[in-house]
């Protein structure tokens, strides 16, 4: 079987020398040493692992500042198991380069000031700015293999405070490309007090929370990893002379993540900076996956950070103004006409939490209406289904609020909705008709159940579908539920507003022929989606569980019902867009990566809306610090399922694709790999009688499994 160069061009670059070296990569399984699925080392032979000992770890033994300001650091360089590494690459494989920086927190302040800095000049105009940076020109003395003492050229100034908390940062890389193992990156920090004592470092946001979306928070080529290192340089002292913008971490992080929400807060100047190589970086197109008011996504109260609640207890003009950028603190504009000359009074008005939602407190001011604690809540549980092939199924279910009391059906008929959707079989949705009147919903049928449900006062209900299970049905079918209500918040006040809130999409499986119930395969998990999205909700909040999504987003469905109503004329002229779940999710998250194929992904949605996902910046980061790394399949997929090719599943209707209908595995993979050569490769390995043979090479045990092919890219 031929593997087209268009698919694995980057991968071949990393493995080119491996073929010559012979047997660096295993042909029949992973090595016995534990490495992540996205690391090249996970697919190397045990012999190669024992020889190279891939990986890189920096650790600081001690640091000190002499009375004359000389800064010196004793540090070690090892592999992850603690084996000493020679930075010159002579006694151990791989040349290692590293840089060091030093900073301190002045008394009475909360952020670092770097000892090591440089002055940069704007591209035009001659403006200058100070930027924290690594030390340059220092000396390194070996202590033993893998242990070194670095003496900074930069000295602490006369009169430096030896009782202040200081931090040393080290970052670097290990080049293992000769052995087909790519480049390893690492960084570390070390806190100390020169005069002795316990340091009190800045500790607000943890890298683990960043990595929920970014996978591996890394910038500047990949060697600078983690928040602990970032905040040593991204301080108030660091500015961009080209734009005049600060690179202070609270400001920069807030303004980057707020992205497209700038327009909602009436900001006229989206955040941008001129960085390495004089490249302009602007984040005005960033769509933050959760609601931007969910500060706890990054300021996680459970992350163990010593100052995790600093956003609640010590608000500042810089941090808050980064999101609320329409406020002019100097004049009081958009700040109830109250000028603020310092941060000293911020916490007096903006206490952590007040008595009501939507007030001036920090939690109150960030209240998301749909999550108001005053809402009664909707909890729908599908208890059982009675019905077999040829019958109209009856669903027993409960509808209760958060207090456990039943919700009358009249609330749904007068100011909400309650619907159920039936589909099947669970072996693959999309190939069953529930009647001639369901042509607009291929593979499923949705019924509004509120008016016809029989309920008692405790919220115990039953509903019988008007559509029957097909007489020829076999195996397991599924029924899912969606419910929504509206409510008025802060009634009678100037903050009065109306919101909607929804129930969780419960799905129940049932046998239509007496066979054992077999749920649909699990490919992605809600927990993985919510690592980035926090609470994934779509279609006005009605759909919020990936177990339910494939019911409608099945291989047979497209946007054919909404495209004729498209509000953009060009959309009406195009054929329908495929919306099968795998195809849609892959293409949405590929976003900006589709540009290399001159491709876009536009879905015409409710009301004929134009939904173009071509600008989506998938937040997972590459080893070299870029974004949109869609090769990290495990970010979404349940453990190892990216290697489980959907061989034999229904072909996918994809009228705008290169092939329609498109075999299931081909559709899933070519949703990212959009070039014609990949389609040709897939088709040449698809037999008219036996179907796709993708799993032979790309399955979990294949030489080119999805995990292995994507590793290290």
Main sheet: strands, sense, barrel: 5 strands, antiparallel
Unreliable stretches covering 5 or more consecutive residues: 1-30
Strand content: 15-25%
As an assembly, this protein is single chain
Number of helical regions: 18
The total beta strand count reads 27
Q: If you compute it from the alpha carbons, what radius of gyration comes out, rounded to the nearest whole angstrom?
A: 29 Å
Q: Kindly state the mean pLDDT as a whole number?
A: 92
Distance between the termini: 23 Å
Percent helix: 10-25%
Please identify the structural class as seen in this structure: alpha+beta
| Shape annotation | globular
Your description of this structure?
With 713 residues, the chain is an alpha+beta fold. Among the domains are: 5-52, no CATH class; 379-520, Sandwich (Immunoglobulin-like); 555-710, no CATH class. 18% of the residues lie in helices and 22% in strands. The chain is built from 18 helices and 27 strands. Strands 17, 18, 21, 22 and 23 form a five-stranded antiparallel β-sheet that branches. Strands 1-2-8-7 form a four-stranded antiparallel β-sheet, with no helix packed on it. The protein has a four-stranded antiparallel β-sheet with strand order 4-3-9-10, covered by helices on one side. Strand 21 (476-489) and strand 22 form a beta hairpin. The longest helix has 17 residues, at 5-21. The chain is globular and about 90 Å long. Residues 1-30 have low confidence and may be disordered.
